[in-house]
Amino acid sequence: TRRPTRGALEGGPGSGRTRLLFHAAELAARVAPNVRVLYGLCREGDGPSAAFSRILLERLGVTPSSSPSLVRAQIAMFVGEALESADALAIGETTHLLGTFAGVPFPDSPFLAGLDPLSGELRKRQLGALKRFFEGDAKKRPILFLLDNVHHAESGAWEILETFLSAEAPIVTVLAGEPPTAERAEKLTAAGGVMT
Fold first, then answer.
1. Residue 64, preceding bond cis, omega within 30 degrees?
2. According to a count of CB atoms within 10 Å of the terminal CB, is the N or C end of the chain lower?
3. In degrees, to the nearest 5, what angle opens at C-alpha 166 toward C-alphas 160 and 171?
4. What Å distances lie between residue 9 and 16, 90, 136, 168, CA to CA?
5. What is d(CA 23, CA 44) in angstroms, rounded to the nearest whole number?
6. Of 148, 149, 175, nearest to 161 (Cα)?
């Protein structure tokens, strides 16, 4: 499908849901080698964006030893490829918004000036940048998002999931966690439907 789909695995500790996620990743690699598999783990006490920030940084090839200037250049390169655009303003804005989402500093950014992090406008624009990036990325290579321990996810994380599921691109999101994961997942609408 060319539109996002969603699935959910629910089970208690030791039920094998994490093992099933890894099996899904292995199966995807065998059956459809062009699929990009991205794995994220929600941890107790994480902020709402933490698991997604880690997924984004991994996708961008950022390591803890990377210098901030190298990371900023790397994000811009990946954004330009995903957006298939030579528009420096669109690439710059998306780069700066993704960077701040992932905790990469962009001092004196003209795109972030005047945006109060508490107003909600920054968050809205960051989610728009995430959607643009992953939509473009998934149009090149379909994406399989595997998100584990979503029972630890805060409400803001579910908002991010809604953003992924509203993309116009081949993105499959599989959530795994303890109850009430399935119940919460049922409230998410995926344009491509639900896998059972």
1. no
2. C
3. 90
4. 10, 37, 27, 24
5. 24
6. 175
- SS3 of residue 40 by DSSP: strand
Amino acid at the residue 100: T
Whole-number Å distance between alpha carbons of 180 and 196 = 17
Place of tokens 């379909």: 142
Give the whole-angstrom CA distance, residue 141 versus residue 135. Answer: 10
Q: How many residues does the chain have?
A: 196
Report pTM. 0.91
The dihedrals phi and psi of 176, each to the nearest 5 degrees, come to: -135, 140
Give, rounded to a whole angstrom, the gap between the first and last alpha carbons of the chain.
Answer: 15
Determine the Cα–Cα distance for residues 163 and 131; give it in Å rounded to an integer.
6
CA–CA separation, 153 and 74 (whole Å): 28
Cα gap 178→35, rounded to integer Å:
27
Show contacts of 59-67: CB within 8 Å, 24+ apart: 59/137, 60/102, 62/102, 62/104
pLDDT tens-digit series, residues 46-55 = 888 999 999 9
User: pLDDT of 53-81, one tens digit each?
Assistant: 999 999 998 888 888 889 999 999 999 99
C-alpha–C-alpha distance, residues 167 and 78, integer Å = 18
